[in-house]
Amino acid sequence: MTRLVIWYGELTTPRRLAMRGASLAAAPGLWLLVFLVMPLTAMVAVAFATRGTYGEVVWTLSTGNFRRLAGFGVLGWSADYLLILGRSCWVALVTTVLSLLLAYPLAFFIAARPRRTRYLWLAAVIIPFCTNLVVRTYAWMLLLSSQFPLARLAAAAGLIDPGSALYPSPAAVYVGMVGSFLPFAVLPLYTSVERLNWSVVEAAQDLYASRLRVFLQAILPQTLPGLTVAVILTFIPAMGAFVVPDLLGGARYMLVGNLIQQQFGSSRDWPFGSAVSLGLMLLTLAGLFTMRRRAATGETA
Amino acid sequence: MSGRLPRWVTLPAMAALALLYVPMLAVAVVSVNASRHGFAWRGFTLAWYARLLGDRSVLEAAWNTVVLATASTAVATVLGTALAVGMSRYPWPRWLRAALDFTVYLPVVTPDIIFAVALVIAFGILRAVSGVFNMGMTTMIIAHITFQIAFVALVVQSRLATIGRAVEEAARDLYADSGTLLRRVMLPLMMPGIAAGAMLAFTLSLDDFVISFFTAGPESTTLPILIYASVRRGVTPEIHALSTLIFLATVLLVLGLERLTTLAKE
C-alpha cells in the first residue's frame, strides 16, 4: 500500500512528487554540476599541481603555488604577490566606500524627484549599469588622455609632466573603479531609500539630533538591506577587477585580476593562476564576512 | 518624500551623475570630430560611422555579440525557471536543498574572473578527454548560460515567494490537473518574474567582458573583445564611433524595456 499525501491541494504520493521535482531540477542541476561545481573543483585541484616545462599541468601534489603566493620563491622571500593581494583588498575597500558616499546622495536625489520624471532619473543610473565595462573604461582613458583639459590642468598645476596623460596611475584606477561600480551601489540603495519611513527621520530632527545622528540612527538602520546589497555588488566585482586596472593602472599598479590573467595568458602557469584565484576567492569571502559583522555590530552600537 | 534637498545632498548627487556621463560624452563628441589625429575640433563628420559600417570584422563582432546574448538568454531562462520551480515547490531533503541554494548563490558572490579561469581549466580538461570543446562560440555560450542560470533562478524564486501557494491549492481544489495548473495559473503569474530574469540575463551577457575574453576562440570576437584589443593596439576614430553606437544602443534598450514594463503594469 503506497502512502498518499496531500501536497497543496493535490492527492499524490511522495514518489510521484519527488519524480516531478527531479524532472524540473535535473537538467539545470546537472548543468550547474558540470559547468560550475566541477570547474571550480578542478581549479582547486590544479592549484595543488605544478607547471611543466611547456606550460602543461603536471599532476604532482604540491603546495608550492601557495608558498610562492606567500612570497617564498627560489630567490628567497619577497612581498610582491602579497603586496598585490593587499593592494586589491585596499582598492576594493576604497572603491566601495567612495561609491557609497556618492550613491547615498544620488539615491536620495532620485527619490526626491516628482513621480512623473523619477523613472527618467532612475534610467540615468541604469544606462551606465548596462553599458559594457570596456566601453566605459575606454571612455575614462580618453577623458584622462593628454589632450583633454583634465590632464592639461594637472600639468599646469605641476602634478604630472606636460604632455603626458593622467593614466596609468593609481588615481586613474580609483576614478575608473568608482565610475564603473557606482551604479551597482545606487540601485539597491535607491530601493531602500524609496521605502524610507520619513516620520522616524522627522522625529529625530524634532528631538534636535545632529545631522550625523539623524543619518546614523534614523536613516542608516532603515536602509541597511539596500546597503548590504550595495556593498556586495560593489566589493565583489571590485576585488576581481581586471579591465579597469589593466587599462588605467598599467604594470606598476597591478591588481590580483591582472595577476590571474597573466598566469593564464603570457606566463601559461595554470597551477599558480589557480592558486591565486583560490586566494582571491577566500579574500572576497573573508572581506564580505568582516563587513557583515561590522554592519551587524554597528547596528546595535 | 518631503521638501527640498539641502545642497550638500544635491551637489554630490550631481557629481555622481557627472562621473557616469562626462566620459561617455567626451567619446561621443570625439566620434563626430573630423580630425584623425588629436582631438582639436576640425568640424562635424559622420565619416567614422560610415567607415565602421563597411568594416567586416566589426559587423561580425556585432553579430556574435547579439547571437551570444540571445542564445544564452534563451537557454538560461528556461533552465533557470525550471530550477526555481523545482527548488521551491517540492519537498527536497534538507542537505540537497542546502547544496542547491549554495550552488545558485556561488556566481553571485564570487568575482567573475574566478569563473572564467575555472571554465578555462574545465574546457581544457574536457578538450583533452573528448577532443571537442575547442574555444569558440559554443564555449562562450556555455559559459554565459552558466552564470545566467543562477540570476534567473534567484529572480524567479523571489517572484514565486510573493505568489504564495494559496492560488495553487485553490486551483487543485477546483480539479485542475498539473498541465492546466502550469499553463493557466502558474505561468501567467510567474511571467513578470521570468521576463525580469530574462532581461537581467540578457544585460549581464551584453555587459560581460571577462568571461567572454577568457573563453573566446580566435574566430569568436565580440564587440567588447574587439574594443579591448584595439585599445591595446592604439585607438582609431572608428572605435569612438563604435563606443558611441554601443552606448546609444544601451540607452534605447533601457528606455525601451522601461516603457515595456510600465505598459505591462497598466
Which architecture of the domain at 55-234 in chain B per CATH? Orthogonal Bundle
Kindly identify the CATH topology of the domain at 55-234 in chain B: MetI-like fold
- The geometry of chain A reads as flat
Instruction: Give unreliable regions of chain B as ranges.
Output: none
Overview of this structure, please?
The complex is a heterodimer of chains A (301) and B (266). Helices cover 71% and strands 5% of the residues of chain A. Chain A has 301 residues and is mainly alpha-helical. Chain A has 2 domains: 1-35, no CATH class; 81-300, MetI-like (MetI-like fold), CATH 1.10.3720. Chain A has a two-stranded antiparallel sheet with strand order 1-2. In chain A, strands 3-4 form a two-stranded antiparallel sheet. A two-stranded antiparallel ribbon of chain A has the order 5-6. In chain A, helix 1 (14-47) crosses helix 13 (270-300). Chain A is flat, with a radius of gyration of 25 Å. The N and C termini of chain A lie far apart (60 Å). The model of chain A has no long low-confidence stretch (mean pLDDT 88). Chain B has a domain at 55-234: MetI-like (MetI-like fold), CATH 1.10.3720. Helix content of chain B is 79%, strand content 0%. Chain B is built from 11 helices and no strands. Chain B has helices spanning 7-31, 47-53, 56-88, 94-109, 112-130, 137-163, 166-173, 178-207, 210-215, 223-233, 237-265. The longest helix of chain B has 33 residues, at 56-88. The radius of gyration of chain B is 23 Å and the shape is globular. The mean pLDDT of chain B is 89. Chains A and B meet through helix 1, helix 3, helix 4, helix 5 and helix 7 of A and helix 1, helix 3, helix 4, helix 5 and helix 6 of B.
